[in-house]
Amino acid sequence: MADPPGCCSTCATCLLCPYSCQWITAKKKRKGLRTTKYDCSWFLFLFCVFLFTLVWLYFAIIILNDFHNFNEFIFRQRKLWLDWSLVLLIATAVLISYSSVLLVLALCLQLCGQPLKLHWVHKILLILTALVVAAAFTGLGIKWAEEWKSARISLQATGPFLHIGAVGGMTLLAWPLASFIYRTHNTGLRVFVLFVYCAAMIALYLAPLGITSPCIMEENQLPPKPALVGHRGAPMLAPENTLMSLHKAVDCDVQVFETDVMVSADGVPFLMHDEELTRTTNVQAVFPERAALNSTAFNWTDLQQLDAGSWFLERRPFPTVQSLSPADRQEAAEQRIPSLEQALEAAKHSNISIMFDLRPENHSDYQNFVNVTLGVILQSGIPLQQVLWLPDGFREDVKQQAPGVQHVYGRKRVENEKEPVLHVNLPYQDMSSEEIRQYRQDNISVNLYVVNQPWLFSVLWCSGVSSVTTNACQVLKEMKHPIWLLPSSTYFMIWIVVDSVSFLIIIWAFVLMK
């Protein structure tokens, strides 16, 4: 391979030192430091590791929407609370930064006509990087498989921009690629590399043919903004499933307060999500010997002794806790476990609906839980149309005792339904844009959960979903429009312009480098 210098000796030395860990001076000849096929294979491996890590970075950003669920899962398993999203992002940033720096150094060395002698330390670290990312993807597939569906949905929001970014990145590769092709004397290798590059560029130029997004539409076709359902209230602004959380949700203009109901040992329905009280109360300090018991094993007098707010300030489940005002901090510290009766009274006073699950579904006394809960609802005086009933158990009894209650189903409709399904409540991964549109045409209300990120809210908005359950009501409240909305004609024009400019730049790069 020819080895003409392409830049000054000082620049070449500065590039070669961190990449090869060898200091080359003007007096020292570069004999024995030519780029070999072995070195080229390591450069190809470096490029693949960079792409692999870049894809993981994309996944890491996407799964942030659901990461609070992962934090809760770890707490239930290990009784350790930590915002693992920070660990994920820091580790991912380190890996992508390392592979990016090495790749940039390699490309600059190629442009300068310098040998690509990757040091053995970098080789080991690259192998470790690939193994770490592979382990992360494997763990994601085993323990959190639904996030693959989230990634597919995310492409509806990012597809057009990923296309532009990919075309831009591959276009920039034209300079070092042209340098490599003109310097190498191996005709077979030259033809192979050029063929692969051209095939990749053609695929990228035609990629928009396979890109679909509900947000590629005319402005006048945009459906109404989805209503907001507060997931356990407003858990980013107040302790979840408390009256403060309900009131904060009302301030965010939510139309429904979503919560979870359990029944105490003495028959009082109260708000609580977890089967144990350890995550959201100080039960370990008040009743240390009973802390591991099911929430339903405590009577109402015991539950009223528990602090249901200080954990929120101590563990900071969301970054927004740091920005709370002193008054909000004081109010949060004073929160107690509310009864269903108190929550219904607050919902009635605020004129919002309440939707809840009744837990635990496998309890031996579940039918009594249903009857007790219905009794509280009927005695509260809240208009029954403001009550959205989620539990499937003994649903027919509920319809008979409280015919005005709205029934929400946690499944898709099926053929030959005895009664029409008017409301469904599903994970956002379980419904496609086409299904959402069809349900909307059939006047079926679709609520999807849990939607926290603006990009996801935008995709579902464009799809026509009726409402979303969210932790971030204060963020989604401020959105007056989807993040982006493009008429198909405008997107077509952008596609043609980007591909044309890229093609001209690539031709110019090859002519210039020659």
Automatic annotation (TrEMBL):
Gene3D superfamilies in alphabetical order: Phosphatidylinositol (PI) phosphodiesterase
Keyword flag Glycoprotein: yes
Membrane topology type: Multi-pass membrane protein
UniProt keyword Hydrolase, yes or no: yes
Keywords, ordered alphabetically: Glycoprotein, Hydrolase, Membrane, Transmembrane, Transmembrane helix
InterPro entries: GP_PDE_dom, PLC-like_Pdiesterase_TIM-brl
GO molecular function: glycerophosphodiester phosphodiesterase activity
Main location: membrane
Residue intervals passing through the bilayer: 40-64, 84-112, 124-142, 162-182, 189-211, 492-513
Subcellular location: Membrane
SUPFAM superfamilies per the UniProt record, alphabetical: PLC-like phosphodiesterases (SSF51695)
Residue span, GP-PDE domain: 226-480
Gene Ontology BP terms: lipid metabolic process
Entry's Gene Ontology cellular component terms: plasma membrane
Family: Belongs to the glycerophosphoryl diester phosphodiesterase family.
The protein's name in its UniProt record: GDPD2 inositolphosphodiesterase
Protein's gene: Gdpd2
